[in-house]
Design brief:
The chain has 4 helices and 7 strands. The chain is of the alpha+beta class and about 210 residues long. The strands form 2 sheets. Strands 3, 4, 5, 6 and 7 form a 5-stranded antiparallel β-sheet that branches. Strands 1-2 form a two-stranded antiparallel sheet. Helix 2 runs parallel beside helix 3.
Length: about 210
């Protein structure tokens, strides 16, 4: 009986079979890795990254916000400190210094104008149209000093000299304009008014431009 040789052919797995066998372990590994990362992000990392500040714990996100707030606050405090202590004429310090100099200069100008008014009042008495019992011939009701413009606004009235109030006002304006500390003057309107209480009087508003 003749022998029959049978040849068995070896079969090789296809690419699909390989991927099928590999995909299951890969998916399991991926799922485990993602689960571990999620667990660490929610439980482990917050414990490792939290910082205690003044008895309160802060995570990384809160720390960033806290740093921004602190930086903003520091800048605000530095600006406030600069306004208080800087030797420049600006900010709160500059406002305080301006107020100080304005008060001092205003008192000085008031004193100088009072000297002029006393001279005018004395001259009015000598000329016979002033009242000795009432010496406030030139009454200054307000003065406004503008340091930036170097100007002084003066308001008031000439009184107690009868119908010569406009004449006395003109003398007052001329005497003020001739002062060394005055460079120019914006003269008032020369008017004469009358009422039962004050008799004749001349109100005035004028501005002195001061010498530098």
């Amino acid at each position: 009986m003749p022998k029959t040789n049978t040849k068995t052919s070896a079969t090789h797995p296809s690419v699909g079979d390989v991927l099928h066998h590999v995909s299951v372990p890969f998916l399991i590994f991926t799922a485990v890795l993602l689960g571990f990362l999620s667990l660490s992000a929610t439980l482990i990392l917050p414990q490792l990254t939290q910082v205690d500040i003044a008895g309160k714990e802060h995570d990384a996100v809160e720390l960033k916000e806290l740093v921004k707030k602190l930086d903003t606050r520091v800048q605000e405090l530095e600006r406030a400190r600069g306004e208080f202590v800087t030797p420049l004429r600006e900010g709160l310090f500059g406002d305080a210094m301006d107020q100080k100099y304005n008060s001092r200069d205003l008192l000085l100008f008031k004193s100088q104008l009072e000297e002029i008014t006393q001279q005018i009042e004395t001259a009015s008495l000598r000329q016979g149209y002033g009242r000795r019992e009432n010496k406030d011939t030139i009454s200054i009701s307000s003065m406004t000093f503008d340091q930036e413009e170097l100007s002084l606004k003066v308001e008031g009235k000439v009184q107690n000299v009868g119908p010569r109030s406009m004449t006395v006002l003109a003398q007052f304006i001329n005497a003020a304009q001739e002062s060394k500390w005055v460079s120019d003057i914006s003269p008032p309107k020369f008017t004469r008014e009358h009422d039962d209480e004050n008799g004749f009087y001349s109100p005035f508003i004028f501005t002195l431009l001061l010498s530098e």
